[in-house]
Amino acid sequence: MRVLQLICQTTAGLFKQAWLSLHSVALVLKRRRQQLALNVIEAERLDRIRNPSKYLGK
Fold it and tell me: What is the pTM of this model?
């Protein structure tokens, strides 16, 4: 009976680790997308500051 309990605990632990790994990868990808969007916005802001003549009509 003890062996079966250990097998079940080990299996549950492996599933938990797999879930946490997938979850952390998803969070990293989400943060990367957010940072890329912020970089684009910041680049446009800096371009507007450096070259205001390009944006006079907007």
Answer: 0.64
CA distance 38 to 29: 14
Looking from the CA of 7 toward its CB, the CA atoms found within 13 Å total: 4
* Structural contact between residues 47 and 54, judged by C-beta atoms closer than 8 angstroms: yes
Tokens of 29: 């990808």
Burial class (CB in 10 A: 0-12, 13-18, 19+), 44: exposed
Whether residue 58 is predicted with pLDDT greater than 90 in this model: the reply is no
CA triplet 23, 25, 31: central angle to 5 degrees?
105
User: Can you tell me the distance from the alpha carbon of 53 to that of 12, in angstroms, rounded to the nearest whole number?
Assistant: 62
